[in-house]
Design a protein that fits this description.
2 domains; single chain; 6-stranded antiparallel beta sheet
Length: about 210
């Protein structure tokens, strides 16, 4: 029974680790850009705006808030051929305008809707692959909870990010188990665990003291 359990755990540890490798790579690489606020290459300048007239805008959309407003403008964005995650909706009351940044990893589209004239100006700029990694890193976070994850592909990414966390926990626990049953590796394993714990608590102490 123990041998069978060890064999199954070892295989799961290996194959789940291989499956998670691309996701861990995305988070590992993007954290450098988050920490240092830097990415190679520069985002392109927005191209000439595309103006669309006769835009059908839901009545009272400017009076809505949160997810209700996002859902209302989603139909407008679909008619304009703009797909992506709505990051916020800025309402400029004195000009009766809605400014809507829409993000697809690596690309940002700004839709400027004039509620008075029922026109929309659509401009797009390329932000690049490195910015796309940062977007994916930050997307499942706690900011703008009321409206975020409003684009289906981004919701799929959130599910994958959640799965990555749980599977990494499994890898950690199964790794400790696989190490514990190998008698020859116990001493070096204890040294590494102690070194890791000392580093972690040392950093915490330095931050909070």
């Amino acid at each position: 029974m123990n041998k069978r359990f060890y064999s199954v755990t070892r295989d799961l540890h290996l194959y789940i680790g291989l499956f998670l490798a691309p996701f861990v790579l995305v988070f590992a690489v993007s954290v450098f850009f988050l920490v240092h606020s830097w990415s190679p290459g520069a985002a392109s300048e927005p191209g000439p705006p595309r103006t669309v007239t006769g835009v059908l805008i839901p009545n009272g959309v400017e009076n809505l808030d949160g997810r209700e407003r996002v859902d209302a403008v989603r139909a407008v964005l679909d008619r304009l051929g703009v797909a992506g995650e709505v990051t916020l909706i800025r309402h400029i009351r004195n000009e009766r305008r809605l400014v809507i940044p829409v993000i697809v990893p690596g690309r940002e589209t700004t839709v400027d809707i004039n509620l008075e004239t029922q026109t929309a100006a659509v401009s797009t700029r390329t932000t690049g692959i490195w910015d796309a990694l940062v977007t994916l890193h930050k997307a499942p976070g706690p900011h703008l909870v009321a409206i975020r994850m409003n684009w289906f592909p981004m919701r799929v990414w959130k599910w994958l990010a959640d799965a990555t966390v749980w599977l990494l926990l499994f890898l950690s626990v199964s790794g400790i188990y696989l190490w514990a049953v190998l008698r020859a590796e116990r001493r070096i394993g204890l040294v590494l665990i102690a070194a890791g714990a000392a580093s972690f608590f040392g950093v915490i102490y330095a931050l909070v003291r």
